[in-house]
Write a structure and sequence with these properties.
12 helices, about 40% helix, about 260 residues, alpha/beta, single chain
C-alpha cells in the first residue's frame, strides 16, 4: 500500500521519494505502544482558534530558520505561550528534523504532538505511535486515493490524522476518504509560493459540502492580524517559521494565540 510517487512534481516529489527510501528498511519491525497520547482532535475543539506551534529548523522554501534550536526547550516555551498542540518535523534531509526531536518533546510537554512528516509508507504510522505522537500528517497530493486507507491505519493505531489539501480536487478526495481533520495548506508545493486566500476559499467549500469536522489553516501566517480571516471558519492554525526563528518563543506564541 505504497503510493505512486514517480510523477509527484517539484520539491514535494523529491522529499517524498527520499522519505520512502529512508523508511523501506523498517518493514516488518515490531513497535511498542506507549501510554495513549493526549488527543489532538480534542485540543483543536477547544473554544477559539487553537495554535499548533511547530518545532522547525529549516525548510526548502526558507532555508535555514533556526538550526541550533533545541526541540524540548522550544516546545515548553510554545506551551507557556498558549499553544494547544506542538508540530514536530521529523524529516531529516530537507527540514533537519529527527525522531529524537519528537521523543524529547513528548517527554517535555503534556499537549498533543503532530508528527509532521511525509507519510508514504504504512510503517510510518505505527512508528509515529511508538514515538509518542498523537497525530500524523497525510498529504493528499502524495497519497491520492490511498488517503482513506492510511486514515484507517491511523485510526487503528489510536492516532488522529491531519489530512492536508492544497486545491479543490484534493479537498474532494479528503472528504470522500472520511477525513475528520482537514488541513488547508496555503503553500503551492510545486513552486513553494504562498497564497493566503487558499485556506478561506477551501474552508468555505468544505463547510458548504457539509464537512463538520475540524479545519486547520497552514503556512504563511506571520502576524496576529492575519488570523482574523480564519475566525469563525477554522478551528486551528499551524504556524512554524515565524515562531521558530523568533528570539522569544513564548512571547511569539502568545502574540499569535487567538484562543
Amino acid at each position: 500500500m505504497v503510493p505512486e510517487l514517480t510523477k509527484v512534481p517539484g520539491v514535494l516529489g523529491q522529499i517524498s521519494r527520499q522519505r520512502l527510501h529512508d523508511v523501506m528498511g523498517l518493514e516488518g519491525r515490531e513497535w511498542s505502544k506507549p501510554v495513549a497520547p493526549p488527543s489532538f482532535s480534542q485540543a483543536l475543539r477547544l473554544p477559539g482558534l487553537s495554535l499548533i506551534a511547530e518545532v522547525k529548523r529549516k525548510s526548502p522554501s526558507q532555508g535555514e530558520i533556526a538550526l541550533k534550536l533545541e526541540a524540548a526547550e522550544v516546545a515548553r516555551a510554545y506551551v507557556a505561550g498558549g499553544a494547544r498542540a506542538i508540530s514536530v518535523l521529523t524529516e531529516p534531509h530537507y527540514f533537519a528534523g529527527s525522531d529524537q526531536d519528537l521523543q524529547e518533546v513528548r517527554a517535555a510537554v503534556e499537549v498533543p504532538i503532530l508528527r509532521k512528516d511525509f507519510t508514504v509508507h504504512p510503517v510510518q504510522i505505527a512508528e509515529a505511535r511508538a514515538l509518542g505522537a498523537s497525530a500524523v500528517l497525510l498529504i493528499v497530493a502524495l497519497l491520492g486515493r490511498l488517503t482513506g486507507s492510511y486514515l484507517q491505519l491511523a485510526q487503528q493505531e489510536g492516532l488522529d490524522a491531519l489530512v492536508e489539501v492544497h486545491d479543490e480536487t484534493e479537498l474532494e478526495l479528503a472528504l470522500l476518504a472520511g477525513a475528520s481533520i482537514i488541513g488547508v495548506n496555503n503553500r503551492n508545493l510545486t513552486d513553494l509560493s504562498i497564497d493566503r486566500s487558499t485556506a478561506p476559499r477551501l474552508g468555505r467549500l468544505a463547510r458548504a459540502a457539509g464537512f463538520r469536522g475540524l479545519l486547520v489553516a497552514e503556512s504563511g501566517y506571520n502576524e496576529a492580524a492575519q488570523l482574523a480571516e480564519l475566525e469563525g471558519l477554522f478551528d486551528a492554525v499551524l504556524i512554524g517559521t515565524s515562531l521558530a526563528r523568533s528570539n522569544n518563543w513564548q512571547m511569539a506564541a502568545a502574540q499569535m494565540n487567538r484562543a
